[in-house]
Amino acid sequence: MRVTILAHEQFPDRAKTAQGILRYADYDVVAVLDRDRAGERVADHVPDAQDAPIVTGMDDVDEPVDALIVGIAPIGGGFDESWRPDVRTALERGCDVVSGLHYFLTEDEEFAALAAAHDAELWDVREPPEDLSVSEGVAADIDAEIVCTVGTDCSVGKMTATMELVDAAREAGHDAAVIPTGQTGIMVEGWGNPIDRVISDFTAGAVEEMILEKGDEHDLLVVEGQGSIVHPAYSAVTCGILHGAMADRLVMCHDATRESIHGYESFDLPPIETYVSLYESLAAPVRESEVVAGMLDTHHLEGDDAARAALSDFEDAVGAPATDPIRYDAAEVLEAIV
Amino acid sequence: MRVTILAHEQFPDRAKTAQGILRYADYDVVAVLDRDRAGERVADHVPDAQDAPIVTGMDDVDEPVDALIVGIAPIGGGFDESWRPDVRTALERGCDVVSGLHYFLTEDEEFAALAAAHDAELWDVREPPEDLSVSEGVAADIDAEIVCTVGTDCSVGKMTATMELVDAAREAGHDAAVIPTGQTGIMVEGWGNPIDRVISDFTAGAVEEMILEKGDEHDLLVVEGQGSIVHPAYSAVTCGILHGAMADRLVMCHDATRESIHGYESFDLPPIETYVSLYESLAAPVRESEVVAGMLDTHHLEGDDAARAALSDFEDAVGAPATDPIRYDAAEVLEAIV
User: Fold this and answer.
1) A251 within a domain of the structure (yes/no)
2) Using CA atoms, how far apart are residues A131 and B37, in angstroms rounded to an integer?
3) A71 shares its domain with A19
4) Which of A116, A161, A168, B185 satisfies CB 3.0 to 4.6 Å to A331 for a cystine?
5) Residue of B nearest to A281 (CA)
6) Domain of B59, in residue numbers
7) pLDDT band at B335 (very low <50, low <70, confident <90, very high)
8) Is A9 within a domain?
9) Are B247 and B106 contained in the same domain?
């Protein structure tokens, strides 16, 4: 499938969906739309991902495109009206439009009419299935080992850690699979429950349902974590995933330069040791689980020395081996996890 | 308003919504419907609440009725088809029907048609408003003191503790108000966001929105807690309320005879001390908060000696004064809370 990715004014650092698709999805990315970086290329900014030109908008894409993917996930999940011309142009060209926003494109009258008129599909990834229910507390009964990525904040690399860990496990001969819980993971994997959009009573149940579905098909399931257990807005999602997953082991994800909660800067991050203690003690009454490895995003640090020093500090705090799965390789900590 | 309360096969112990309405709402309860207890009376089972006859069904209620309230909240929130004749009869008599089930009566074709034909209203209390959003982490900025009830499990008395605490505070001269988060609280108070039904990303935000709305009108807000922070299915709701409320103080609620999680009996309750530590350490990074009192449901214990002994043990475990607000009086611990 040939796609364009909308990431206006936010590529690359605030466009984590765009980055995830460029790195992990089996799509042929024709162009990234970012009016602030037109003329640059993906490879100028994102290592280890497929390259593509960055253009101002859909009007600058001459090649055939099957789908436009909204590659930004702003706080609150709203639709920015400045994106409307690109979505309109895409639909008029018959392109499908894929979105992980809380704002559903299918409920936008103009988009729905354009999609119908031009035989294009609107896929709102964040619309959950209707048959979800409460957790029964039985995820741990499956045969596969369950690992869950947890983190210190939003956008600290939980999705990346999940994807890189599964890739590394497969390369080492394990039959591993991702349990996708967020819009990017779902877009990459082509299935999954958008946990932040299910009704709160069903949060754990929506994770459990995916684990029960895949538990007998694989040896290792890696559940994509969300948010942070001390996030002022999103901790409910994190807590539901933690208890629904009933993981055997946890992997702590952190951004080496993050000091306060993104978008909530009056809230300092507590020490890493506090996170380890909180996640383990909160998980224990439902399922004993231990933080066995760390994944650190060091891309804001200059040079190998700084990255290795940050990793060493992080390993001390986590009390387990750690790596940066992009700068280095998730395989470095695989032995501690599987 | 004259109401009947449907509680088939579950009155009184498994009909907490019915009990809450009998105790705290300003409704005139004409009858309770429980086919297993027809001929008995509410006063045979529930102390300190308005009395009413218990009957087999709506056909046995000859007096005029304004509304039928579904007073049961089964796990999962489904509609039991054995209740259909009573709802049908109520609507045919022009009674409104109030329900806190996940299953929305307004989406049931027969009920919707009957309600339209007989000018009756269907009120699905658990349908959240559409304008909710993510928390901004600012609930603590209001002038009122914020207290949140937390608990060891579902159905351990958080709603009761909330109502009794607000009553006791008002009697002591405080301008106190309930922040209702569940179906019973909303039915009793006539407003509120059904937190277990909002989408998970907005869990904390839906609590914050209520606190910001009421914060300048009162001196003391008591947030009705839900579930338990270690519940295999519902912990997400609990965690979102804890962080959205940004409470100054917490009140720990427990049932003296509860040893495992209701409906999830393979999960033992951890020690009370573990709950205190978990709630306080989880709240702290968002808002420092302390468990300052306990509320113990002792109604399964025989006699004052057993209840006082259980309360003494509970006080030791919580590290704060405790009472049973039904057997004794919430005023006993008010000083520790306000």
Assistant:
1) yes
2) 34
3) yes
4) A168
5) B278
6) 2-124
7) very high
8) yes
9) no
- Percentage of chain A lying above the pLDDT 70 cut: 100
- Looking at the complex, does the CB of residue B129 fall below 8 Å from at least one CB of chain A? no
A-B contacts (CB, under 8 Å): 162
Extended strands (E) in chain B: 2-6, 28-33, 54-55, 67-70, 96-99, 122-124, 145-151, 176-179, 220-223, 249-255, 260-261, 264-268, 290-297, 322-323
Question: Is A133 a domain residue?
Answer: no
In terms of domains, do A171 and A236 share one?
Answer: yes
Contacting B residues, span 282-301, partner chain A, CB-CB under 8 Å: 282, 284-286
Reported as a single tens digit per residue, the pLDDT across A146-190 is: 999 999 999 899 999 999 999 999 999 999 999 999 989 999 998
- Per the document, the length of chain A is 338
Task: Verify that A145 and A257 share a domain, yes or no.
Answer: yes
Contacts of A281 in chain B (CB under 8 A): 274, 277-278, 281
Chain centroid, CA A118 distance in Å: 31
Cβ–Cβ below 8 Å for B200 and A240:
yes
Looking at residue B75, its pLDDT comes to 72
Residue A28 Cα distances to A21, A33, A42, B240, angstroms: 10, 15, 13, 39
- Residue to mutate among A124, A127, A199, A267, with most B CBs inside 10 A, is A199
Strands across the sheet with B220-223, in order? Answer: B176-179, B220-223, B145-151, B249-255, B290-297, B322-323
Predicted TM-score of the model (pTM): 0.91
Q: Is pLDDT above 80 for B315? A: yes
Q: Which of B274, B278, B286 sits opposite A230 (nearest CB)?
A: B286
B-chain residue closest to A263, CA distance = B136
Same domain for B98 and B227: no
- The per-residue pLDDT for B99 is 95
- Structural domain contains residue B175: yes
List the single residue in A with minimal CA-CA distance to B280: A278
Q: Is A57 helix (H, G, I), strand (E, B) or coil?
A: coil
Asked if residue A263 and residue A159 are part of one domain, the reply reads yes
Q: Decide if pLDDT at B306 tops 80.
A: yes
The total domain count for chain B is 2
Residues of B in contact with A201 (CB under 8 A): 77, 102, 196-197, 233-234, 236-237
We report the CATH number of the domain holding residue B51 as: 3.40.50.720
The residues in B 256-275 lying below 8 A from A, measured between CB atoms, are 264, 266-270, 274
CATH number at residue A223: 3.40.50.300
In this complex, is the C-beta atom of B141 within 8 Å of any C-beta atom belonging to chain A?
Answer: no
Per residue in A211-251, pLDDT (tens digit) is 999 999 999 999 999 999 999 999 999 999 999 999 999 99
